[in-house]
Amino acid sequence: MFSHKGFVLPRDLSLLMSVFFLLIYYSILIGLLPIRKLLDLIERNRFGSDEKIGLGHPEEETLGKIYRAATYFLRRVWHSERPCLRRTLILYRWCCRQGIPSRVMIGVRKEKGKLQSHAWFEVAGLPYKESKEHLNTYTPILEG
After folding, report:
1. Distance CA 35, CA 107 (A)
2. pTM for the whole thing?
3. pLDDT digit string, tens, across residues 106-117
4. Looking at the domain assignment, is residue 123 inside a domain?
5. In terms of DSSP H, where are the helices of the chain?
6. Which of 22, 25, 57, 143 is 20 to 30 A from 39 in CA distance terms?
7. What does the alpha-carbon distance between residue 1 and residue 15 come to, in Å, rounded to a whole number?
8. Is residue 57 part of a domain?
9. Inside any domain, residue 74
């Protein structure tokens, strides 16, 4: 087995492939559907109930791997400067399927006279891998 940055191959190969193809899938859907409908589509496929309070160790480890894989593919393969929306959709999808309470937040701010947007992911009411100070600079316009 080969281990690198928390991934163990071949065990995590299916996870990496899933993230890669989901990025393609959501890239296409973002161009075809309004974000609200896309979030509803993900929510409709929720498994289980929202009875979990937060993340246990195995869930947190898997969520971290999904986050790192999505960020890697978006930044290094697609050279995306703004990977937040597609990465957030994949994290949200995974949590919905695991029955973990989560939500997508999209906010805007004005920077140098231009409107900037940012999407982030909250699990059990807390931002995931985001600083509250950074997020406080955005005005939320959509919650899902």
Report:
1. 13
2. 0.90
3. 999 999 999 999
4. no
5. 13-32, 35-44, 57-72, 84-98, 132-135
6. 57
7. 16
8. yes
9. yes
